[in-house]
Design goal:
heterotetramer; A mainly alpha; B mainly alpha; C mainly alpha; D mainly alpha; B: two-stranded antiparallel sheet; 72% helix; globular; C: 11 helices
């Protein structure tokens, strides 16, 4: 039987992911959080690669590189746009 | 006829794709006909499947990936009479809801129709699937369709709040379920339910299996709106359009319970079936859910919110039936599912018609406005009596079987509590009916909280059509207790559903079912006990409804004592249903941890 | 309940959940000690039986093809749902769309190169998915991203033919419906739903793996269109006019 | 040491739930949901990993060489798509909430209760 151990690179990848999750959760400002989430996404991609899972890694890459940021940033922009429009209206 | 199960999923999905794609090219009439035709055809196929599944297990291995040497490779739909019956009822309720919405919803009809068909397909897939991850896929598909349908009325805040709470809690439930899948997969290396079960039959069932079981079941209990995971249900069901409510409340919530039963009897009864600990947790959760939601129903004035709590109350009763872990209890749950789905749908339809007629949905505002609408009044009253379980009406037979199961297990107090709960929920509905259709009771009642109003979606409906649909739903639900032969068939279906090793042999090894003996076609009789319970629940419901209507006329001493003893817990109870999603998520975490802890204590060692 | 009360209840609950997780983890096989059998069996049988070198894609589109069918429709339903939920938003925003053309030719050239690159990568991911890593989903998202870049770099008009939602709706339905039709074709011919009917071809080439290729392309079309439609719902009426406004002020 | 990957997955899950329960912004909350869901990918892929195994793509390697589990990878793929669908819907709802009530704070988004 193979004695199971972590390859150093895997250790690093798991460490990054473990650090990333609280950072994303604790970043309360949505714009900064979107950024943090992007970095977290990259660390997940790295993790999937070192776990020999190229397909999920690619999928995570396109999702955290294109999918999430676009919808999140659009939502943030819309919310801020509304707020600004309302402020202008009040003035 | 192994070709039917995939069709129940693919026909509605294909129609959804066609409608979404050809929206700009298809005349409205053609689209209406297509939607209703497809939904009706799916229902008809489900009935055909039900007939076929009586004599053997209908197993369809997708892609032709049959198991090799007892190792499942692909995904299967394994359909017994119970699953087929569920599909038939789901199809029936969805078809009725679609006919009802023909004139009820004009706006965004393409999106609505497509999403309803997607939900229909997902629910059928969920009822039939024999693969753990595939269950997750259907669960998410029906959830995604349902979130959007709940928020249909985007011009008001209520639907948005309801949909947000629904989406967040149920998504979290889905993710807990996914983690549970990973854990159980690590232990067994299988995703097919029958195969997971057989893998768990050897080796110890330690903490891993108990925790995985907790996560998987909690995922379903969130979907099924069981205390303390039920908080989203009233927010969501109160705000969706009436036909969507009928589908969500009538069948989609209850389907979480089918998931619980399926998972227990294919997988977890293998390691834990010798004891009663797993079932007892369901039994207690069910009882607490039923009583609590019955009380909450009594405190509502918004008709759809009241119905939502009534749904949760009956979910509790059905979960308790599963928790008895015997055929009688499961058969009772099954029959209640059938009657409850149709009756609830019918009552939501009636609430929708009242809303359209008067532009009001608040019981107190509607007081006396329903005078003279005899058809509506009849539908409401009959539907309510069916939901209480007045002897030989509606859910009565199911409740009777459940009673028999409970007393056979030596737990005669279970039926008493459950009947009390259904009387409570029924009392709320009776009170509302008497106030609206007879003009009884006071004009205001501070007990029922602040007034809630909303604009109806549509003011010009083809009234005979919507009324006809409502009456049909109520009538079909009402006769469920006296359909000859249904009770015996439900018990047979439950027997087969509970036969863990037989199921595994049929699915993994293709072993044929021994020819079933022919079942009698007669009305099933219930015990004297159930008859008494059913009648007293009806009288209790009527009495409580009168108390609710004429609370102020009670003697001063009585109301003073009641005010002191009942008011504080009611305030706490209302406070818990805060409408804030952060609270709901907190209670989900608490519920999952406690459920897991209890199972850890009861099942370990 | 107050936020403080919520935290006080949440803390112990999460501790309890953590304890449950710890208990479960103690019973898991050690990391790297996967014992099968499901995955090992598939690794052995999928390549010879289906002539695809990428077992993950063979699993996704053939052995567990129904999951992927459900997945396509989850995306499909999400697009419909977002359109349903945002229909008021888009209706109330009848303002003219500003086009905010980027003036700099160098930027435009860079953009065109990037778009070309993205389109190629997207197509490559779609086409070779069942041979090397990639597949309909990944390729579809990249492809949609490239078309979106076209919208950013070019003027609004360049994007127009793709943004025509009737066409996108139709294409998405063809993609999602196509998946079903491939499955139903097998059912009609008397086999199980989604049975791989077509010639399996030579392992490692683009014409290998029979209907896996078809399903892959169907989902690529569906995913590209779904992603574009989602982006369109979220983006088209707001973000870019806003940016143009920022640039102007 | 060999249990570290699973512990990381559980850790992520708990943080995600904490984030959802305490969030004051629906956009933030939607991202926290994806964090919770990422826990299930990490669990799945860790569970299917085989020491010294290669990716289950058999080009130039002979069949039968040690490879990691392809099933969990297929499941993770589906899971990723689900997360995109859910985040899109929740963000759309957040926009609706903001349009109607001017806030994206779930604690203030209470129309009915009790």
């Amino acid at each position: 039987m193979v004695i199971a151990t972590l390859v150093p690179l895997q250790f690093v990848a798991f460490g990054l992911v473990a650090l990333g999750a609280p950072v994303v959760v604790l970043t309360r400002d949505p714009l900064r959080q979107a950024l943090a989430n992007g970095v977290y996404g990259v660390s997940l991609v790295l993790l999937f690669v070192v776990l020999e899972a190229p397909d999920p890694a690619l999928s995570m890459l396109v999702v955290s590189g294109i999918g999430y940021p676009l919808v999140i940033l659009a939502a943030i922009a819309r919310v801020r746009g509304h707020d600004r429009a309302k402020k202008d209206g009040e003035r | 006829m192994t070709w039917i199960p995939p069709l129940l999923v693919t026909i509605p999905l294909l129609a959804a794709a066609v409608i979404a794609g050809l929206d700009h090219f298809m005349p409205d009439r053609v689209q209406d006909a297509l939607v209703i035709g497809v939904s009706a055809a799916t229902t008809a196929l489900a009935f055909l499947l039900l007939w076929d599944a009586e004599s053997h297990e209908v197993v369809h291995w997708f892609g032709g990936w049959q198991p090799r040497h007892g190792v499942a490779l692909g995904i299967d739909f394994a359909v017994g009479p119970l699953a087929a019956g569920m599909c038939a009822v789901i199809g029936l309720v969805v078809t009725l809801a679609l006919i009802y919405s023909l004139t009820f919803l004009h706006e965004a009809a393409k999106l609505f129709d497509s999403l309803m068909l997607v939900a229909l397909a997902a629910m059928c897939g969920f009822a039939m699937s024999g693969d753990l991850f595939n269950l997750f896929v259907w669960l998410e598909l029906m959830a995604v369709a349902a979130y959007a349908l709940t928020g249909f009325q985007v011009e008001r805040l209520g639907p948005v709040q309801g949909a947000v709470n629904f989406a967040i809690t149920n998504s979290l439930g889905g993710y807990l379920f996914a983690v549970g899948i990973a854990l159980i997969y690590a232990r067994t290396g299988a995703l097919n339910l029958a195969q997971i079960g057989s893998a768990l039959s050897h080796g110890s069932a330690g903490g891993l299996v108990i925790v995985a079981m907790t996560l998987l079941f909690c995922g379903f209990l969130i979907k099924g709106a069981v205390v303390p995971f039920h908080l989203w249900a009233a927010d969501a069901y109160a705000v969706a359009p009436a036909p969507v409510c009928a589908v969500l409340g009538g069948v989609m919530t209850d389907i979480g319970l089918i998931g619980v039963a399926r998972l227990y009897w294919t997988v977890f009864s293998v390691p834990f079936g010798h004891g009663h600990a797993a079932g007892d947790v369901f039994l207690w959760l069910g009882i607490v859910t039923a009583v609590l939601a019955g009380t909450m129903a009594f405190l509502q004035r918004h008709l759809k919110r009241m119905l939502a709590y009534s749904v949760v109350c009956h979910i509790g009763i059905m979960l308790a039936g599963i928790g008895l872990l015997d055929s009688s209890g499961l058969a009772g749950t099954e029959l209640m599912f059938l009657a409850h789905a149709l009756l609830t749908a019918g009552l939501f339809f009636v609430a929708g018609i009242l809303h359209v007629d008067h532009g009001l949905i608040d019981e107190l505002h509607l007081r006396g406005r329903g005078r003279g609408c005899w058809a509506l009044a009849l539908a409401w009253l009959a539907g309510t009596l069916g939901l209480i379980g007045t002897p030989y009406l509606g859910i009565y037979l199911g409740h009777g079987l459940l009673d028999a199961g409970a007393s056979r297990l030596g737990r005669p107090w279970v039926p008493a509590l459950l009947w009390f709960a259904s009387a409570l929920a029924g009392a709320a509905l009776l009170r509302a009916g008497a106030r609206i259709f007879l003009g009884w009771g006071d004009e205001d009642d501070p007990l029922l909280g602040k007034s809630i109003e909303e604009d109806p979606l549509e003011r010009h409906v083809l009234r005979p059509l919507v009324l006809g649909v409502a009456l049909t739903a109520v009538a079909l639900g009402l006769v469920m207790s006296i359909v000859p032969g249904l009770g015996q068939r439900a018990e047979y279906a439950a027997d087969r559903f509970r036969d863990t090793s037989g199921y595994a042999a049929r699915v993994l090894h293709g072993r044929p079912l021994p020819p079933p003996q022919s079942l009698p076609v007669s009305i099933e009789h219930t015990s004297l006990e159930s008859l008494l319970y059913g009648s007293s629940a009806t009288f209790l419901g009527l009495g409580l409804a009168l108390v609710g209507l004429y609370r102020r006329r009670l003697p001063g001493a009585v109301s003073a004592v009641a005010g002191r003893t009942v008011a504080p817990p009611i305030r706490v109870l209302r406070g818990l249903h805060s409408g804030v999603v952060g609270d709901y998520v907190t209670w989900i975490a608490v519920g999952t941890a406690v459920t897991g802890g209890v199972w850890a204590l009861l099942l370990h060692g | 309940m107050s936020r403080r009360a919520r935290l006080l209840i949440l803390g112990p609950a999460l501790a309890g959940l953590g304890a449950l997780f710890a208990w479960a983890i103690a019973g898991l096989p050690a990391f790297g000690d996967y014992r099968g059998p499901y995955g090992f069996v598939l690794n052995r049988v999928v390549v010879p039986l289906r002539h695809t070198t990428n077992v993950v894609m063979g699993t996704t589109f053939d052995v567990r093809g129904v999951d992927t069918m459900g997945e396509e429709f989850i995306l499909f339903a999400a697009v419909l749902g977002v359109a349903l939920l945002l229909r008021d938003e888009t209706r109330s925003r009848e303002v003219e769309r500003r086009t905010g053309r980027l003036p700099n030719d160098a930027v435009r050239l860079l953009g065109v190169v990037m778009i070309g690159g993205c389109l190629l990568v997207g197509l490559w991911l779609m086409a070779f998915g069942y041979i090397t890593p990639g597949g309909g989903f990944q390729g579809g998202v990249v492809f949609a991203g490239a078309i979106l870049l076209l919208y950013v770099v070019g003027s609004h008009r360049d994007y127009h033919p793709f943004r025509d939602e009737n066409v996108l709706d139709l294409l998405e339905s063809i993609g999602a419906g196509g998946y079903l039709v491939v499955g139903l074709a097998a059912l009609v011919s008397g086999s199980a739903f989604l049975t791989n009917l077509f010639g399996l071809g030579t392992t490692g080439t683009l014409v290998s793996s029979g209907s896996i290729a078809l399903l892959n392309w169907a989902s690529a079309i569906a995913v590209s269109c779904a992603t574009l439609l989602l982006f369109a719902e979220f983006l088209e009426t707001y973000v870019f006019p806003l940016d143009a406004e920022d640039a102007a002020s | 040491m060999s249990y570290l990957p699973y512990a990381v997955a559980a850790w992520i899950c708990l943080w995600g739930i904490a984030g959802i329960a305490t969030s004051r912004n629906l956009i933030h909350l939607a991202v926290c949901l994806t964090v919770t869901q990422s826990s299930s990918y990490v669990f799945l892929l860790s569970v299917g990993y085989v020491s010294h195994g290669k990716a289950p793509i058999f080009i130039g390697t002979k069949l039968g060489s040690t490879a990691v589990d392809p099933v969990v990878q297929a499941l993770a793929l589906t899971d990723v798509v689900v997360s995109v669908a859910v985040i899109a819907l929740i963000l759309a709802l957040a926009l609706d909430a903001h349009r109607l009530s001017g806030t994206v704070d779930p604690d203030e988004l209470v129309d009915v209760s009790g």
